[in-house]
Amino acid sequence: IIRALLAGENVNHHGAHFDVENAQLWDLPDTPLPIGVAVSGDSSCELAGRLADLLIATEPRPELTSAFDGYGGAGKPKVGQLPICYDPDLDAAMARAHDQFRWFGGGWPVNSELPGPTAFAGATQFVRPEDVAESIPCGDDVEAVVEAVRPYADAGFTEVALVQIGGDHQEPYLEWAEQKLLPALREL
Predict the structure, then answer these.
(1) What is the rounded CA–CA span in Å between residue 139 and residue 49?
(2) Residue 105 pLDDT > 80, yes or no?
(3) Which of 20, 85, 89, 150 could form an S-S bond across to 13 if both were Cys, CB 3.0 to 4.6 Å?
(4) Residue 154 pLDDT > 90
(5) What's the whole-number average pLDDT of the chain?
(6) How far apart are CA 145 and CA 126, in angstroms?
(7) How far is it, in rounded angstroms, from Cα 159 to Cα 169?
(8) Of 165, 4, 15, whose CA–CA distance to 94 is shortest?
(9) d(Cα 129, Cα 92) in Å, to the nearest integer?
(10) CA–CA separation, 60 and 152 (whole Å)
(11) What pLDDT score does 120 carry?
(12) Domain spans in the chain, listed from the N-terminal domain onward
């Protein structure tokens, strides 16, 4: 469906999961956009290897990258996604990560079954800022981020997307990343 839309086609599709009636994109990109598929197990790796231009995963599991390769993804980018919360004040970083990302520790099997904000609030009501900081690098410790990225590199990921928590902290994060973090990550 997406590839046909990006090719400028008029799409009509009636399938097990989606119904699309008379859809068409009028403002097409100059070059085709790569399509990534998030994976969590063998079935999604098979789909991604066969149809996607790149793999996306939130866990550094080597079985995901090897399955993707085996299903036709060999040579395609494999992107690991890792949240971090930069702030020179560790306590502020932990508080922000807790406020905006405390659901992260529940993992995909839990999060995929929660029906809405009330359920997320209930599932995370006993999560403390310290708990969040155990799974998400917080503060300005370059080595902590490098150590969090290392399992992705070891698992065969070709890229790691660092997700900075906190929209109003992007500029200081980007400056820190350029000056300190990226040089350290290039040594991996």
Answers:
(1) 36
(2) no
(3) 20
(4) yes
(5) 93
(6) 25
(7) 23
(8) 165
(9) 10
(10) 5
(11) 81
(12) 1-33, 77-185
User: With 80 as the cut, is the pLDDT of residue 139 above it?
Assistant: yes
The Cα 82–Cα 57 span in angstroms is: 9
Residue 46: pLDDT band with limits 50, 70, 90: very high
Identify the pLDDT of residue 122.
84
Q: Give 68-76's long-range contacts (Cβ < 8 A, gap of 24+).
A: 68/39, 69/156, 70/45, 71/45, 71/46, 73/45, 73/48, 73/49, 76/52
Amino acid in position 118: T
Positive or negative, the CA dihedral 173, 39, 53, 4 is: negative
Q: What is the CA radius of gyration of the chain?
A: 19
Report pLDDT for 177.
97
Tokens of 129: 């800022």
Three-state SS string over the chain comes to CHHHHHCCCCEEEECCCCEEEEECCCCCCCCCCCCEEECCCHHHHHHHHHHCCEEEECCCCHHHHHHHHHHHHCCCCEEEEEEEEECCCHHHHHHHHHHHHHHHHHHHHHHCCCCCHHHHHHHCCCCCHHHHHHHCCEECCHHHHHHHHHHHHHCCCCEEEEEECCHHHHHHHHHHHHHHHHHHHCCC
